Structure formats: C-alpha cells, structure tokens
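Q: Predict the assembly, please.
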Amino acid sequence: MLAFTRLSLAAAVLAPALSTHAAKILVQVGPGGQTIFSPSNVTASVGDVVSFQFLSKNHSVTQSSFASPCEPLAGGVDSGFQPVAVDATNLPEFSIAINNASKPLFFFSAQTALVDECNLGMVFSINQDANSATKSFTDFQANAKADVPAAKATAVVSSSTVAAAPAAVSSGAKILVQVGAGNGLTFSPSNISANTGDTVSFQFLNGNHSVTESSFASPCEPLAGGIDSGLQFVAANSTEIPEFSFTITNGLKQFFFFSKQTVPVNECNKGMVFSINQDPNSAVKSFAAFQANAKADIPASTASAVGTKATAVPAKASSGSEILVQVGADDSLTFSPSNISAKAGDTVTFQFLSKNHSVTQTTFAEPCSSPLFGGIDSGFQPIAPNATAIPQFSFTLNNANTPLFFFSKQGAECTKGMVFSINQDPNSVKSFAAFQANAEADIRPAAKGNKRGRRVHARDFSKVVGK
Ligand SMILES: *[C@@H]1O[C@H](CO)[C@@H](O)[C@H](O)[C@H]1NC(C)=O
Ligand SMILES: *[C@@H]1O[C@H](CO)[C@@H](O)[C@H](O)[C@H]1NC(C)=O
Ligand SMILES: *[C@@H]1O[C@H](CO)[C@@H](O)[C@H](O)[C@H]1NC(C)=O
Ligand SMILES: *[C@@H]1O[C@H](CO)[C@@H](O)[C@H](O)[C@H]1NC(C)=O
Ligand SMILES: *[C@@H]1O[C@H](CO)[C@@H](O)[C@H](O)[C@H]1NC(C)=O
Ligand SMILES: *[C@@H]1O[C@H](CO)[C@@H](O)[C@H](O)[C@H]1NC(C)=O
Ligand SMILES: *[C@@H]1O[C@H](CO)[C@@H](O)[C@H](O)[C@H]1NC(C)=O
Ligand SMILES: *[C@@H]1O[C@H](CO)[C@@H](O)[C@H](O)[C@H]1NC(C)=O
Ligand SMILES: *[C@@H]1O[C@H](CO)[C@@H](O)[C@H](O)[C@H]1NC(C)=O
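A: Predicted assembly structure:
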C-alpha cells in the first residue's frame, strides 16, 4: 500500500514536471545578505517546482504551519541548514514539486544562532489566500513575528494581493536524479555527466537519505565545505517530494557524493553513492572504483594516513597517472582490479584494506612458488579489523613492454587465485587468465631448472614507497 502510494506520487510529480505546463518558480533565500525570502510568497500550480536558491549566510527552508510558524511540521519538508560561504561558487538550491494547489504551504528559516530569523519575519508561503483568516501570508508572518505558540494562533483577515512569481530563466539542462526510488538504497542514475550551467536535481522519494559531497579517496566522509542536502526524511503521508539541486559551475570537474544515513544501516557502505563526470577509464575517477571504495568503507583517517604515506612519493615529477589497486576489498582474497594496463611513468598504488596480504612479484610459470629474486615485495601488511589507517604501497613503472606478475605470499592465498598482473596480453600465452590458472593449479618448480636465480630487470620499475 505504501509502495503503491509512493510510486503514484513519484509518477504524479514526474509527469507534470516533464510537461510544458509546469513552471519552475525561483525563490531567493537571503538575497543581498538580507533575512528574507524573495518573493515572500508565491502561487504555484500542480506540477510546478518551487526552487529555493540559497544566496548568503546560513538559512533553511523548513515547513511549518499557519498556526505555529516557527515550529517544524512533523513530517514536513526541510532543506536543513544551507551555509553559503562568502566566496561560494556552487549555490545550493532546494526544490519542492507541488502536488496539491488547493493546500497552502507555510515555511520559515529555522536559524536561531545569532538571531531567531523566524521571529524577524523570515517566512514564506505557497498558495496563501489573502482573503482567508487562516491562510493569508500577512497573518502568517505576523504570527511568526509575534512568536505565537501553537495554541494561541489567531487569524486576522487581510487583503494582500498575490502576484505570481516570475518563472525562472535557466540556460543549462536540468538533470533529474531519484533518491531511494522503489525503497532502494540507490541514486538513479548512479552517475551522470553534466556541463557547466546544468542543474542537477535530486528528488527524495522514500526513506531518510542525504546527498552529501565526499571525495574519491574517502567516499563516506563529508567533504569540508562540500554540498550537503542534509537528511531528507520523507514521511509515509508526505504530500510533497523534497528536491535538492545545485548548478554546476565547472563541468570539467568530477564530483562524488554519498548518503550519510547510518541508521539502521550505513548506506554508503551499501554502495549508496553517486558521481558527476566520472571517468570510467581512470583508476582514481571512475564511479565503479569510487563505489568499491565506499563498500570497502575506507575510513576517514585513511585519507590523511594515505596522504602521509604518499608524501614519501617524490613530488610526482612524472606526468604519469596513478592507478589504484585495492588489496582485500570486502575481506576478499582479491586484487581489484585483478590486472591493469599501465604506461611507463604511471604509478601503481596498492591499498591494503583487510587481513594480512602482500604484493609480491613472481613469475608467470610458477606463481605461488616463491618471491621473484630481486623483485618487488610490499612485505606483509596486516590490517586490524579496527584499523583507521590503511597502508599503501606504490611503485612507478619504467618499462611498459614487459608484463609483470604478482601474488600475495600469505599462506595459501595464491593458490586461491589471489594474483595480479600489469600489462598482460589477454591474447598471448602469458595472459592474466593463464597466470591465474597456473596459480590455482599451484604449479611448482620441477626439482631443477627453477627460475629463482633470474634477476628481474631493475629498470622495469623504481620503487617509490616501501614499507
Ligand atoms: C506576496 O508575494 C508578492 C510577490 O509575489 C508580494 O507582492 C506581496 O506583497 C506578498 N504578500 C505579502 C502579504 O507580503
Ligand atoms: C503525517 O502524520 C503524522 C503522524 O502520523 C502527523 O503528525 C503529521 O502532521 C502528518 N503530516 C502531514 C504533512 O500530513
Ligand atoms: C488538497 O488539499 C486540500 C486542502 O488541504 C484537501 O482538502 C484535498 O483533499 C487535497 N487534495 C488531494 C488530491 O489530496
Ligand atoms: C549553520 O547553522 C547551524 C544551526 O545554527 C549550525 O549548526 C551550523 O554549524 C552552521 N553552519 C555553518 C557552516 O556555519
Ligand atoms: C532521519 O535520520 C536522522 C539520522 O539518522 C535521524 O536523526 C532523524 O531522526 C531521522 N528523521 C526521522 C523523521 O526519522
Ligand atoms: C553510470 O551510469 C550509467 C547510466 O547513466 C550506467 O549505465 C552505468 O552502468 C553507470 N556506471 C557504473 C559503473 O555503474
Ligand atoms: C602477518 O602474516 C605474517 C606471515 O604469515 C605473520 O608472520 C605476521 O605475524 C602476521 N601479522 C599479524 C599482525 O598477524
Ligand atoms: C584495536 O583492537 C585491539 C584489540 O582489540 C586493541 O588493542 C587496539 O587498541 C584497538 N585499536 C584501536 C585504534 O582502536
Ligand atoms: C583483467 O582486468 C579487467 C579489469 O581491469 C577485467 O575486466 C578482466 O576480466 C581481467 N581479466 C581477467 C582474465 O580476469
């Protein structure tokens, strides 16, 4: 029953929004640093979207009621506080779609830190009725200034006229993202491409989720100064769908987001993440790798821990890119990805996420036999279950023409297929698949003729970060 209600609600909102009749009505929050909504009240039809642009300070758009202007309405819409830095380049925008134009809606800014903004009259309404004793904006605002408690609300007839708000002028495209569609822990779509000027709008359809900016390296931690919708609870009986938007001012940049809800489950760890302008071919910018990081729950302090270790990397003189490989993601016996292609000058970085693995160079023919003499070896990297720092091991490739093979030298992990390669050729006899098959078959040296004595070409790589 609930699901049905929600689905029809979503459909009801989407359909008109896509029709040509639906208008977008722009409301400025705090223009010129003032403690006001501008306009203070609007008239909206079914399907119209009212979009609040936060222009200064730290206000909210919080639904209340005519009777209690300065009290959040249970189950009402709430943008949460939207601080706007003086030099902000991305202005937060919060929107709601109107489903019932006969019903007046009342809002206030819940900020009370320096001054109680509601008591100053920073209130707003949609579809007020100037001639109604219980629905006029003037009376609502008077109640707010008088800080009228619920029980004492009185209505005074007023005769304000209501002018329709100007429709917004928007040059870029509007890209819709559904949050929690079908009660899932998803953003749909999970990743988008957006150009400068485009507006990305998140519709909260269910549950109690957020759209919170993070970073590729720490998917489940809010980015300092980043965009945050706040948690958006959608009550079973809610008649409005909260929508949160912002406009992209730099279409060349990648943006990463998560839902910061952790009750009853950590939604980020469940993969409830989203990205804008991911690069599927980049190890440090792809949505797939970002989501894998989120599921692996790379902890907050990791970013700095990794960063600390990474400072050992000589200021990336090389113009090569960094390729990230996760070791033991999700407690699994895997390198992820299992094999990569790298160019000379690229840095390959291994992040140890669980257990006690190694990245140890070996040979194609005898993967699990023993470390390659003179080869790369991270040594064992034990990770406590409660670890807050993640060790990272890197090297820079000098020669992209020779395939390199690696295993985890821990116990029997190699024979369980925990191997990795760089620059394999899937069509040659030395393919990663064949190498992994050798590992799983536990090919061992014959009594004689093993290659342990063979020294790897030292110039195939230079080790950058050791243990
Ligand atoms: C309602 O908003 C309109 C602008 O849309 C404004 O002209 C009018 O004064 C407002 N009413 C009140 C009572 O403030
Ligand atoms: C939703 O239901 C709750 C209680 O079930 C009630 O307190 C609240 O006023 C309702 N909200 C709306 C918008 O109808
Ligand atoms: C719209 O709101 C009015 C006033 O609250 C209510 O009487 C009516 O039933 C609502 N219509 C729908 C379709 O929910
Ligand atoms: C915005 O206001 C809220 C409520 O007063 C406060 O908790 C929060 O720290 C403020 N944010 C900033 C960045 O000032
Ligand atoms: C939404 O989630 C937050 C964080 O878990 C929680 O504090 C808040 O009470 C929830 N809201 C509702 C209405 O359940
Ligand atoms: C990125 O989103 C597109 C749809 O926009 C989807 O087809 C693709 O699978 C997504 N990529 C990943 C890695 O989920
Ligand atoms: C990691 O594994 C190695 C080899 O099995 C072992 O010697 C070492 O004690 C382990 N470290 C921890 C902390 O378990
Ligand atoms: C991690 O757990 C171990 C064993 O329970 C404990 O000794 C150690 O203090 C914990 N470390 C942290 C950082 O919590
Ligand atoms: C090699 O890695 C790619 C991803 O980088 C993967 O799609 C492919 O399946 C891997 N090859 C084998 C044989 O596992």
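The chain has three domains: 3-148, 154-298, 315-440. The CA atoms of residues 199 and 247 lie 4 Å apart.
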